[in-house]
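Dock pyridoxal-5'-phosphate; give full complex structure.
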Amino acid sequence: MTIAGSATSPQHNVETGKTTAYYQALDNAHHLHPFTTHHQLREKKPRVIERGKGVYLWDTDGNRILDGMAGLWCSQLGYGVEELADVASDAIKNLSYYNTFFQTTTPAAAELSALIAEKTPAGLDQIFYASSGSEANDTAIKLIWYYWNLKGQPQRKKIIARERAYHGTTIGAASLTGLPFMHHIFDLPIDQVAHIGPTPHYFEYAQDGESEEDFASRCAQALEDKILELGPENVAAFVGEPVMGAGGLMIPPKGYWQKIEAICRKYGVLLWSDEVICGFGRTGNWFGCQTYGFTPDILTMAKGISSGYIPMSALALNEEIATTIVNSDDEMAHGFTYSGHPVASAVALRNIQLIEEMGLVGKRGEETAACFQEHLASLGEHPLIGQTRGIGMLGAIELVSDKETKERFHPEGHAGGTCRDNCFETGVIMRAVGDTMFLSPALVITPDEIAEMFDLIGTALDKTHAALVA
Ligand SMILES: Cc1ncc(COP(=O)(O)O)c(C=O)c1O
């Protein structure tokens, strides 16, 4: 595998003569961004990222930044893999587009389906395509409802999700999301969704003296209580991210998923694993459910499926759901213009093959994750840090004002925002949600790059400490 571009500083603005201010002015004039308070951005002006190579990004001022988040948890192979560029280019020249609606397929979509089915847990062998995690999740909601209609249980429509879950932003996916700030302004959630707490995050929600196992039982009991409250005959599915991502990078307590799986089986409730972040090696296996030892009935995936080179997502259905749908005389009247897009399929296919060939789910992946987790744990000594936690190539850092009592800074989010800005200034990207900092680097990151990343983070933490305690 070779990486496109040179290792030296980028040729920013040289060929075009266009400046950072030029792009910022256009952007401010015409661009509405996701998850943004626009008047603030327009005052501050966006940083303009123009190039990426491996784990590094460059902005239009020539600053090199080590991306500790792999974009938005998606670039498993890092930026600028020439082979994927060639695959996309060849695919576009060969067949830039055709659909999969009218009893047609393409070689890439057929081969990709077989390869994904090989990687998903046994039995989850039928694949449907979309272009984003949210679309895959909305598709899952519709197919779950359709399945229960076909099974003669049309009243089974409630889907149970968790407080602080993140499942995306389309109407169904945003409804499943358990973050109230994403609901109020859009009149969500829809009626068919119910949320449960406590969120399975021992650090924040365990009671005094409660063991991890007991906490897991309490979280699972909340699911059983909600099923009984709604009436088991009305509950269609339970959905969860194996490790909760955007809501706070929360790692489940020991035994949690086994207890959840047992409750779903007890009441015939479908178990749905949202693997949009956890898929494709992020937690050490192909999918997070394999890391945590449970078998879902439905699995949704996106991000790492194409390493973010091209929009692509999918869901895998188990035999029972798929057979019920396949044997129905109804037309399954659902799908997208870009379901199984030939170019996206070709890129995803080669991306997954490269993850395998490079051992990123395997020996190299294990060694990289061990090195990453060791560095992450060593940050725990820092006076600002109340806890570090991680699994595979996911890591979180809790910023606290008092290491012993774990008391937070006030107002909440100020420390996280300050730390995020200091990271950017120092040349490394960590994401902040409240006062939790996230890391999710490319799976191809080398030990030297990991060391560099944590050196930069250490500098950013020192600056943040100085700013907060001054
Ligand atoms: C677990 C999970 N599900 C769904 C989504 C939504 O994916 P997208 O932004 O591609 O719609 C995300 C995005 O971060 C996610 O983390």
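Observed: The mean pLDDT is 95.
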